[in-house]
Structure formats: structure tokens, C-alpha cells
Amino acid sequence: MRILVTGGAGFIGSHLCDRLIESGHEVICLDNFYTGHKRNIQHLLSHPCFELIRHDITEPIKLEADQVYHLACPASPVHYQSNGIKTIKTNVMGTMNMLGLAKRLKARFLLASTSEVYGDPEIHPQSEEYWGNVNPIGIRSCYDEGKRISETLAFEYHRQNAVDIRVARIFNTHGTRMLENDGRVVSNFIVQALKGIPLTVYGDGSQTRSFCYVSDLVEGLIRLMNGEHVGPVNLGNPGEYTILQLASTIQNMVNPDAEIVFKPLPQDDPRRRQPDISKAKQWLNWEPQVQLEEGLTKTIAYFRDYLNNSK
Ligand SMILES: NC(=O)c1ccc[n+]([C@@H]2O[C@H](COP(=O)([O-])OP(=O)(O)OC[C@H]3O[C@@H](n4cnc5c(N)ncnc54)[C@H](O)[C@@H]3O)[C@@H](O)[C@H]2O)c1
After folding, report:
1. How far, in Å, CA of 18 to CA of 170, rounded?
2. Per residue of the chain (311 residues), what is the pLDDT tens digit?
3. Is residue 167 a contact partner of residue 234, using CB atoms and an 8 Å limit?
4. Whose CA is nearest to atom 41 of ligand 1?
5. Which ligand 1 atom sits nearest the alpha carbon of residue 58?
6. Residue 36 CB–ligand 1 contact under 6 Å
7. Quick one: which atom of ligand 1 is closest to the CA of 178?
8. For the stretch 270-299, what's the b/e string if a residue is b when 16 or more beta carbons lie within 10 angstroms of its beta carbon?
């Protein structure tokens, strides 16, 4: 198949491009390099089945493809908050453009949505039936509400125009090719520990998150795309850890002498996050295979190399 991956030069998108190419597909990677990098796909540039197009999805584009994985959107608070209006445009105009393209091509369309649609959840763990608790005017809203309207758009195109959609709600994912400085908790702690500077925990560290390794996530996306269930489907690792547990695990793995310091909690930071993955298990026969420390070992090795090479 010919498969379009928007945001294909980003962290998750580049791993998805790798997997699709390995499976023998042709891949068109569309990216404006806002948070993505050529280094993530450098190794694919000479591959005959790989094509890179620098393009901002807020502008329409005409292409031919059989499937569309729609991942383009900055995913870390540092980046999505640095230009909140652009984040909204990417989610609204960008998602509409990509859905319009899928409609014209009669291509199956998978939206990379997020656990952030649940906001600061009042039920735990979060199942797909939960409608969420999102502040519509807070500093995370451009992303949280942006993804909620992306889901709404996908379902409207599905109902009105019979676009064949799939919706994945992705929970925290980590792995190689994450950015060094984008404020995501796993990369933050690892980079701080490797640099020998204190690990910053926001709040008292009792807030929880779950951490999925990127290879597991990509497998889930591919199964969802090629299965018959529209979703939304939670994709994440149900192992739940407090932020303080994560900090101590990384401290022990990288640098037991590194200090842990506490800073005030940012506005609207969710207190608890854990996916209920019953649907993914039942519909996709999917569950994560990579346990936290195994995944962290790979992510740590990546950042160790990356920091050594950028010295
Ligand atoms: N990483 C996670 O933990 C996580 C969790 C939930 C959801 N997601 C979703 O998965 C997707 C990929 O996330 P990621 O972690 O790889 O993030 P990322 O920031 O590494 O990748 C996003 C990619 O989209 C590109 N992009 C952004 N705006 C664009 C635009 N207007 N036009 C074209 N390209 C644009 C960026 O340059 C980048 O390559 C995102 O949609 C994100 O919301 C990620």
C-alpha cells in the first residue's frame, strides 16, 4: 500500500515510518519540522519506497494514498503552548484538510488522539466511555480541546461522508528519538540524570502516569488501522507509577547520586493517568510487551549517545 504519515519526522511518526517500510509499504512522510527532525528519518531518505514532503498541514495538499496515519501535532506542553493558536489551527484546519484528503481518496484515516481528552480525570483508570474533565480555557486547552475537536471532526466525516476512520487515544509514550528539551517527564529525568543535574519533580510527585514504549505503541496503531473497529481505543501501558517512583527508578538506573528537587505543579496538571486497555486487548489482541525498566534502558542509551555526540 501507499501510506501517508503526517508528522512522520516526529518521535512516534518516525518509528511508524520505519515499521511500515519494513513491512514493504510505500510511505509518504509529511512534516513541517516544527518538532520533527530530519535526523529521525535520515536513514530512510535513500530508501526507494520512502518519500519526504515538507508541508504544513494547515494548508491543503493533493496526494495519492491508500491509508492516512494522522499524527502531525506538537505533543509536548513546551511546544504546543509556545504557539497555542498554531496548535489549534493544526488540530482544526490541519485535521480537516487531512480528513478531506482521506474523503477524496477513499483512504482509511487513523487519528492519533490522546489521553489528554480525559483532562484531569474523575474516574480511574480511564476507559473510552469517559467523556473527560477538561478546562476549556487553561494553558493545556489548545492541545486537549484541539484533540477533542479532531476526534469530533473525524466522527463527523465518518457519519456524513462515510470516511473510514480509526481513533487511537495514546497515553504517555517514551523511547528513542524523543526530544532532549521538550519538558516531557521521561526525557527530562533521563537528561537531567545523565547531565548530573537535579531531577525536577513538579508538585510532591504523587501524581501518576503510565509509560508505554514506542515499539508497543506503533504495533497498536498498526493493528487499529488494519482492524475493523473504529474506536476510540486507548493505547498505553496500564502500569501506573507516581512521578516520584519514575524519578527514583531513573535516578537508580543512571546516576544514584543525582538529587531530586521539587517545584510547583503547573496549572491543570492531571493527578492520575492510567489507561483501561480492555478494548485494545479485545478488539486488537494488543497489550504492551515492553516493561518500564526495559524500555527505559533503551531510552537512556539513546540519550547517552545523543548527548555524547552533541558535545
Ligand atoms: N508521545 C506521546 O506520549 C503522545 C501521547 C498522546 C498522543 N500523542 C500524539 O501522537 C502524535 C505524535 O506525537 P509525538 O510524540 O511523535 O510528537 P512530535 O512532536 O515528536 O511529532 C509531531 C510531528 O508533527 C509535526 N507537525 C506539527 N505540526 C505540524 C503541521 N502543522 N504540519 C505538518 N507537520 C506538523 C512535527 O514537526 C513533528 O514531526 C501527536 O499527534 C500527539 O498528539 C503522543
Report:
1. 19
2. 999 999 999 999 999 999 999 999 999 999 999 999 999 999 999 999 999 999 999 999 999 999 999 999 999 999 999 999 999 999 999 999 999 999 999 999 999 999 999 998 899 899 999 999 999 999 999 999 999 999 999 999 999 999 999 999 999 999 999 998 888 899 999 999 999 999 999 999 999 999 999 999 999 999 999 999 999 999 999 999 999 999 999 999 998 888 999 999 887 777 888 999 999 999 999 999 999 999 999 999 999 999 888 87
3. no
4. 71
5. 31
6. yes
7. 20
8. bebbbbbbebbeebbebebebebeebbeeb
**Ligand 1: residue whose CA is nearest its atom 27:** 73
Structural domains of the chain, ranges and CATH numbers in brackets: 2-173+212-235 (3.40.50.720)
Which positions are catalytic?
A: 143
Q: What is the pTM of this model?
A: 0.96
Q: Indicate if ligand 1 lies below 6 Å from the C-beta of 13.
A: yes
Dihedral, CA of residue 302, residue 307, residue 308 and residue 311, to nearest 10 = 160
